[in-house]
Write a structure and sequence with these properties.
The protein has eight helices and 24 strands. By secondary structure, the protein is α/β, with parallel strands linked by helices. A five-stranded parallel sheet has the order 6-3-2-10-23, covered by helices on one side. Strands 12-19-13-14-15 form a five-stranded parallel sheet. Strand 17 and strand 18 form a beta hairpin. The longest helix is centred in the C-terminal third of the chain and has 19 residues. It is elongated and about 70 Å long. It starts with a strand and ends with a helix. It binds flavin-adenine dinucleotide. Flavin-adenine dinucleotide (FAD) binds next to helix 1, helix 2, strand 11 and helix 7.
Length: 337
């Protein structure tokens, strides 16, 4: 059981800034996200798009904002738990216990739900047999590329993830890139590299083609694809990597007994607490009169919720408001003199 002051669900911009606001108050947080990295929508949906409405930052991309937020919370040495979805939230007297898809358990007096539009999950292959190979020889993300070394890899998809991994894995494995259209959506410079490799016989491209079946018992041995003219082709395959994009699922959040307003969690705007004491909702996931779905709103909400978290985590201490520049204690927590 991992014990902390606040369990933050979601490592989007709001969850990251919440770490800061809790940290300067001397509170420890554990951050859990279903994705493999921090940044939420900023990193998954628009890493290279400019953002113009972050106070005091005239322009930055989603990726730049994420790395600045991560830099800002470095002093707090926060533990991140990626690739884990929070499935269950159970009350244990004054505390909350959270269980994830990896069966990790966390306990804390506070939970801050910064879950945005829900957890991002891969769009899965619709073939029945796909499920039995999932996580063994069929994957929707790459955790460790070394696992694919020297193998026959069939990569599905037409976006950046499919192209990037086709290029990267072609250095260590035999890659077939399969897409249902002739046109790819991913970056043109990556596509040009891939086409060059294909001309050199170092990678194979199959378009427009669709997956029709997967063969194998314990692990995959081959796949069958259908070409535009309905001809089928068998391809020797050890691993399938499928990148059909992400879908956003509110998922288990709706089962935690929280008051919901359509797909949002209702909160009061004094401290962003939900109908459950000690469970807060901040950022895009919360709703209250006048709510704006902007990054700066999430920052404000996390700041106010962190005060209430302090009161619950340190019931014997009095919360004292201080400016970061004039408080010795806060400066110490930030590693400043
Ligand atoms: C195309 C586009 C452009 C935008 N441009 C701007 C802009 O210019 N300026 C601006 O202010 N805003 C902009 N926004 C909105 C902004 O991105 C959101 O307001 C912001 O991302 C909300 O942050 P968040 O941390 O609340 O949620 P998110 O960024 O959605 O992050 C939530 C995280 O929670 C995780 N999560 C959810 N449920 C679970 C669970 N059960 N277990 C584990 N993890 C979970 C998700 O995987 C995700 O990583 C834009 C949005 C889009 C789509």
């Amino acid at each position: 059981m991992i014990k902390t002051d606040v369990i933050i669900i979601g490592a989007g911009p709001t969850g990251l800034f919440a770490v800061h606001q809790l940290g300067i108050k001397g509170l420890k947080a554990a951050v859990i996200d279903n994705l493999d990295k921090a940044g939420g929508q900023c990193i998954e949906l628009y890493p290279d798009k400019p953002i113009y409405d972050i106070p005091a930052i005239p322009e930055c991309t989603g990726k730049e904002l994420t790395s600045k937020l991560l830099e800002q919370i470095k002093p707090f040495k926060t533990d991140f738990y990626f690739n884990e979805r929070v499935n269950e939230v159970i009350q244990d007297k004054e505390n909350w216990v959270v269980q994830t898809s990896k069966n990790n358990k966390f306990i804390a007096p506070n939970i801050m739900i910064a879950g945005g539009v829900g957890s991002f999950e891969p769009r899965k292959l619709s073939l029945k047999e796909a499920e039995k190979f999932e996580g063994k020889s069929l994957f929707y993300s790459v955790k460790n590329k070394e696992e694919f070394k020297g193998k026959n890899i069939s990569i599905f998809g037409g976006g950046d993830s499919a192209l990037d991994w086709a290029l990267e894995l072609s250095k260590i494995s035999k890659v077939t890139l399969i897409h249902r259209r002739n046109e790819f959506r991913g970056a043109s410079h990556t596509l040009n590299e891939i086409k060059k490799l294909s001309e050199q016989g170092k990678l194979s491209i199959k378009t427009p083609c669709e997956l029709i079946s997967i063969e194998g018992n314990e692990s995959i041995s081959s796949i069958n694809i259908k070409h535009e003219d309905s001809k089928t082709e068998q391809i020797k395959t050890d691993n399938i990597l499928s990148f059909f994009g992400l879908i956003m699922k509110l998922g288990p959040i709706i089962e935690w007994g929280l008051n919901m307003d359509k797909k949002h969690i209702s909160v009061n705007s004094d401290n962003f607490e939900t109908n459950k004491k000690g469970i807060f909702a901040v950022g895009d996931i919360c709703n209250y009169p006048g709510k704006l779905k902007l990054i700066l709103s999430g920052f404000h909400e996390a700041a106010l919720a962190s005060v209430e978290c302090f009161k619950r985590a340190r019931p014997n201490e009095k919360y004292k408001f201080e400016f970061t520049t004039s408080s010795k204690i806060i400066k110490g927590r930030l590693g400043k003199k």
